[in-house]
Structures are given as C-alpha cells and as structure tokens.
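thread: overnight batch results

M.L. [08:02]
morning all. the overnight job finished for the chain we discussed friday. pasting input first so we're all looking at the same thing
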Amino acid sequence: MIDLRSDTVTKPSEKMRKAMYEAEVGDDVYGEDPTVNKLEESAANILGKEDALFVTSGTQGNQIAGLVHCKDKK
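M.L. [08:03]
and the structure it wrote out:
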C-alpha cells in the first residue's frame, strides 16, 4: 500500500534504498549533483516547462509555491 498522507510517513523500499546508495552525487547548491540535475531536467520535460526545482519536502515545495506569488514591498 502507498500512503500519501505525508512525505514523512512513506518508507523507501529496498530497491529505492539501493538506488539512493548507488546514486552519483555532488553539490546541489552549485549545480554539481548529476542525479538532481537529471531529475530536474526530466521533471521539466514531462511538465513542458523550461526548468524545474527539486525540493526536499512537500512542506518546502508548498512554501516556495506560496512565496512566488508574494510581492516584495521594498
């Protein structure tokens, strides 16, 4: 069963853990993580967008989505 209540209750399968363990990694802040870069590129292509941004949780994604609609009053 897949539990979609929260991104914190879903537990990775053994196959998912193996993929994470074997993933090529780098510094995502500087755009040097090839796995994240590929994920973002794939997501952008699937959604027909110019770019995509990987976020670490649904809460972070929701906060970013809300903030992009706020105007800076400086």
